[in-house]
Amino acid sequence: MDQTLKSIELNNFLNHPHFKVDLQPGINSITGDNDKGKSAILTAISWVYDGKPSGDTVEPWTGEKHTFVKLSFVDGLIITRHRKKGKNWYEINDRKLESIGNSVPDEITKALNLSDINFQGQANNLWPMQLTDGQFSKLINKYSNLEEAHIKLKQLISEEKKQREQLELNKTTLKSALEKIESLKWVYEAQGMVDSAHVIQRTIDDFDRKHTETQAILKTIQETALRHSENKKVVDVFSKKMKSARGTCDEIQKIETKSEQIKDICSQIKQINARLRGKAKIQRASKELKQARLLISEYSELTNGIENTESKLKSIKSVNSRIKLYNKDMETIKKQIAEIRKNLPEVCPLCKMTIIREGDL
Predict the structure, then answer these.
(1) How far apart are CA 10 and CA 305, in angstroms?
(2) Distances (CA, A) of 169 to 6, 118, 174
(3) Cβ atoms within 10 A of the Cβ of 273, count?
(4) pTM to 2 decimals?
(5) Which residues have C-beta within 8 Å of that of residue 215, sequence separation ≥ 6?
(6) Structural domains of the chain, count
(7) Torsion angle, CA of 322/327/332/338, rounded to 10 degrees?
(8) 112 and 218 share a domain?
(9) In this structure, are residues 92 and 77 in contact, taking their beta carbons and an 8 Å threshold?
(10) What 3-state DSSP class applies to 203?
(11) 180 and 115 in a common domain
(12) What pLDDT, in 10s, does the model give residues 256-286?
């Protein structure tokens, strides 16, 4: 949208019964003899913008009862202020807006988007040449939001400090976790020995079961032989069973041989138990193994935290670079203003008034 002023129309306003001027793109200059209404044009714009001057001071003694000022813009926007018989109202593109007293509707103020800084009176010092360096810097800060940038920079510096402190804390915690993991390496070795001991114990239990079953068979054979010793037929049967039993005895001898091996295994188990210092130490080792796994998980989370912190530090460095560019642009602007002040003439070529410099105030 182009809100450049296109034309100004005055009716029954100060010393203008009716006047309309079409403005050209760029800078427009209105010249004429004194008391011909040049300043009245600027006053008319101010009258629409902030209701000043108030009352009926803008109405001349011409007998005309209706006063209005119409401002037309390049983008098609038309704003008109009316005054008739002491009553004020506005129109924006032919839509009427009521006005109480000299108040300006918010919709009009927002549409015009003007402030006192847009108006320069005849007797006013040239703006912003009358400002001191400090005042000019504050003005630049206000309209370029540098103050907000400085506040953001302070916040980022504070955040950077917190992140660095958190980073150091994370490194310390990580170092402690690594040392703890290193001290628990023997737990993995102990776990392997425990698993081997369990396998050996299961083998021993299996041999014990088979040995018990063999002893029960032998006991049954012996009882049968005693009951049928007088019966030859039974003896023959017994002889056959004895042959079978001999095979069983051979198996028993094999089992006894394996029992010797089992004794050796039991000796090894006793040595393992001696190294682990009993069942209580095995349980304690299992608990520390779980703690080691938790530490490994915390180590992974700390690593992710460090990566996030490094990413934030990169963002902070990028903002610092932009702030340095803003400061460099400020120095350039100040130098340009100083050069403009230096080259100003002592007398205005348009109004022939003496230009007041900062040193003359």
Answers:
(1) 69
(2) 65, 56, 8
(3) 16
(4) 0.37
(5) none
(6) 2
(7) 160
(8) no
(9) yes
(10) helix
(11) no
(12) 677 677 677 667 767 766 665 655 665 776 7
Adjacent-strand bridge partners of 20: 9
Calpha distance 163→11 (Å, rounded) = 67
Residues 113 and 181 in one domain: no
Residue 134 in domain: no
- Same-domain status, 202 and 107: no
Question: Exposed, middle or buried by CB within 10 Å (0-12, 13-18, 19+), for 192?
Answer: exposed
Is 99 found in the same domain as 35?
yes
Whole-angstrom distance, CA of residue 225 vs CA of residue 242: 9
Please determine, for residue 123, whether its predicted confidence score (pLDDT) is greater than 60.
Answer: no
280 is a domain residue:
yes
81: nearest Cα among 61, 107, 99, 65: 99
Cβ(91)–Cβ(83) below 8 Å: no
Question: Within its chain, how far is the Cα of 78 from the centroid?
Answer: 44
Cβ-contact 50, 119 below 8 angstroms: no
In a domain, 94, yes or no: yes
**Phi then psi dihedrals of residue 85, to 5 deg:** 55, 45
Buried residues in 296-326 as b, exposed as e (16+ CB within 10 A): eeeeeebeebeeebeeeeeeeeeeeeeeeee
Give the span between the Cα atoms of 255 and 258, in whole angstroms.
5
Asked whether residue 186 falls in the same domain as residue 286, the answer is yes
Q: In the block, which residue shows the tokens 């934030």?
A: 312
Best-predicted range by mean pLDDT (31-35, 57-61, 318-322): 31-35
Find where tokens 């009352």 sit: 55
Last residue of a domain, one of 283, 308, 333: 308
Backbone angles phi, psi at 165, to 5 degrees: -65, -40
361 has a pLDDT exceeding 80: no
What distance, in Å, lies between the first and last C-alpha atoms of the chain? 41
Question: 114 and 197: one domain?
Answer: no
Q: Structural domain of residue 304, as residue ranges? A: 175-308
Same domain, 77 and 180: no
* Distance (Å) of CA 96 to CA 79, 80, 82, 112, 128: 10, 9, 10, 16, 37
pLDDT tier at 100, thresholds 50, 70, 90: confident
Last-in-domain residue among 119, 142, 162: 119
Q: Is residue 69 part of a domain?
A: yes
Q: What is the CATH number of the domain that holds 107?
A: 3.40.50.300
